[in-house]
Give the backbone structure.
Amino acid sequence: MKFGVVVFPGSNCEEDCFYVIKEILAQPAERIWHKQTALDNFDCIVLPGGFSYGDYLRTGAIARFSPIMKPLVDFAHKGGIVIGICNGFQILLESGLLPGAMLRNKELHFICKYVHIKTENINTLFTNLCSSSQVLKIPIAHNEGNYYIDEQGLKSLEKNRQIVFRYCSPKGEINKEFNPNGAIANIAGIVNKEGNILGMMPHPERSSEIELGSEDGRLIFKSILKWTESK
Amino acid sequence: MIKPEIYRSLGLSDQEYQKILKILGREPTSTELAMFSVEWSEHCGYPRSRNWLKLLPKKGKYQSLIGEDSGGIIVDDLAIIFKMESHNHPSQIEPKQGAATGVGGIIRDIFTAGARPIASLNSLRFGPLSEPYNRYLLGGVVDGIQFYGNCIGIPTVGGEIYFDESYSGNCLVNAMCIGVANKDKLARAVALGAGNSILYVGSSTGRDGIGGCSVLASHEFKKGEEKRPTVQIGDPFMEKCLVEATLEALATGYIVGIKDMGAAGLTCSVSEMASAGNCGVEIELQLVPRADANMEPWEVMMSESQERMLICARKGKEKEIQEIFLKWDLHAVVIGKVTDNGMVCVKDKGKIVAEVSAHSLTEAPVYDMPYEKPDYLDELNKLDVTKLYEPKDYNEVLLKLLNCPTICNKAWVYEQYDHMVQTNTIILPGMSAAVIRLKGTNKAIAATTDCNSRFCYLNPYRGAQMAVAEAARNLVCSGAEPAAVTDCLNFGNPEKPDRFWYFKNCVEGIADTCKFFNIPVISGNVSFYNESPKGAIYPTPTIGMIGIIEDTGKICRQHFKKESDVIILLGSLKQGLGGSEYLKEIHGLTRGDVPDLDLQLEQSVQAAVLQAIRKGLVNSAHDCSEGGLAVTIAEACITEENQMLGAVIKLDVLENFCLRMDEILFAEAPSRIVVSVNKDNLSALCEIAKKHSVGCQILGEVKGDRLIARYKEKTIIDLSLVKLSDSWRKAIPQRLAK
């Protein structure tokens, strides 16, 4: 299957995603410059982490106006697979492809560290290789990862089983102590109702090799592969 | 007629002004005067330090590269380029922007050499956190480093932080960056070939940072001075685009030479590129992109606006280069050309505003500074341990040391830095060295920054030796062979003979030790005038060292891994409490002489440990430094929060070498490494130690959930891991919450 990794000015995890797809998954991948106005022949588009346009305004607020976003929205609406990681998740929220918004972390600091997240829904194309409630060790690195959605929106996310990952303890307990950024309901990642767009704050591309401390992130990429191949 | 007040306010002496008159054969224009003042400042021209810097060795076991703005070594087909630089005074005034632009500046020094930056480190020093302004500085500096480093996508993988009264009023922010390039694809900071074009690329030129290096960096702080306008403002997003565009442009092969505009801005890049190429450069200032209206020519030449580069491009290929920068929405303007007359010629609206020989700008006068040993030192070096009261409760002492900000865990700091981006960081911050893998090879780089400045204050020669030895020891504990050094020499006012004596002795200490270890000093930076009304900082020759790991499968971390592993002390059993953190924290004393350092023994200990790690014999390795043996073992127990392991230690084997228990526990003697091994590997390890003539003492075993230390039948220390960990982990957050 063919992956495309979008490069905005200020993206800084695009090479890391590219490396995992090419070297670890051994799949074809292309970088897509943000000024491109068409997306052809891709199975999955990755919006990588970083600081698009410096994120001096609200995170992702300028990137959503990039030329690439129009074909990307079309691609997503037609059921194309999209995964937004960190800044990519923020861009998905700004562009309305996923519901909710990001606030600054509760401690008002950037946080970079390994955290644990619990897989809340294994019936998605991004998690089909995870076992039920599997705890994944994956790092976060962000300033604005404090996910927020109003009460009604949260109910709807829960009802539609759109919450895919929640921050938890190494053993899988979900509570305030193991919520690194203050995200509502410990939310670390969600999908859209149709299930083809995933946004997550933790970085699976940073945890796809045991040498880096964890290979749990690889499960997410491999799930996408499995789903596409079985189609 | 230029009045003395004018040139003096720019940092030039009467003597230097006379020299300028002689060079020009006339009075300088205001632009020329400004250009001389920045190029001859200590920051750019090294007039006071250059004679001594010649002592530093340039060759080692790997082939060295000494470039215009940085240096490096060659490992197989790769050039590893690195450098450390200070941004002390800007950070003291405006900590966030000061630190941010310090990071931005050192990153430019790396990619201007054609290398992709892969990791940053730093070395920070502040006054005690009990003072509110020091808390503000710590917060601001960390914020500045995370702001710049995280956005630009270069992991901040390591560093060190010390707190001491001597830095109240003059903090230190030393930033280091490491980059990697194909060894045949390096770029030089040179202008060559008459008729080739000079391109200005990157951000616009504004009034920020004017005189940053001459006025700010080359004077000590006096009371009530307002220097904020001389601090530059950083834009990491701009620099991220500049990194990508520059590396893309260099790959075209159309770039003859390139240099960043850092200290002394356009003046520095124009004159140094021309001088390096033995040619001239002519530029027109009206073509320079501006951020501020109505700037005077001298302001344009002096501005230290960030994120700008100067390129010498092959004639006829300007357009290809410009297109790449425009793709990244960056300025790329031809502002001049290379000439063959050796002159830097600056025009404004076609009128010449400066015309000076490039060499005269870059060849700053060299001064032999007088030096003299301070008279207080002999008295300060005296220490009679027997006269100190001996603590009754060593549990309390150990907890207090673990909680002291210099020793404690620094997660509050490094978790604010993105230390994982680029997915190469194999050993994350919090250990004695960071390890960064080199993708596409089986190798990795280990990197560390080190300097115990209290040692340098008490004995500058040996203190500097200790800094080099400790940096090397840290690298060895990760499984790396020490390979090369960059130094950042932070001292007080060099015009005062006692301060210069410290400088001279530290440089000699570094030079002799590096020669002994066969490690070159491939780049560096000098920062003088680090003084506040209270006096000079402790002499702080920060050592940034990198080492090479041959096999990423053979790396080692500092924490205990397995219950019932044997804990061993390799190396020296000599002690000495002089200059220790224990004396300072518990007895309130900065006294004594620095413990002895036997370079041969140090080298043997390091060789033995490296061999043991490479053979896969040891499960952990941690060197003894601040806080001594007790802190080393405690850290080995608690470093990994989710995997803490206790230890039971017997101190009897050390008694013959010490006068008292506090010496055994807390002396900071060098050449000691604590390792843990599986019982089955014990004899193989002892064999290696014996072969290297290195002492090998069994101290105890990894066991349970407490740290217990016994002497004969007496329990000296008995603490739960949770208590040790709390004391160590919460030290900085506790103090900042005040």
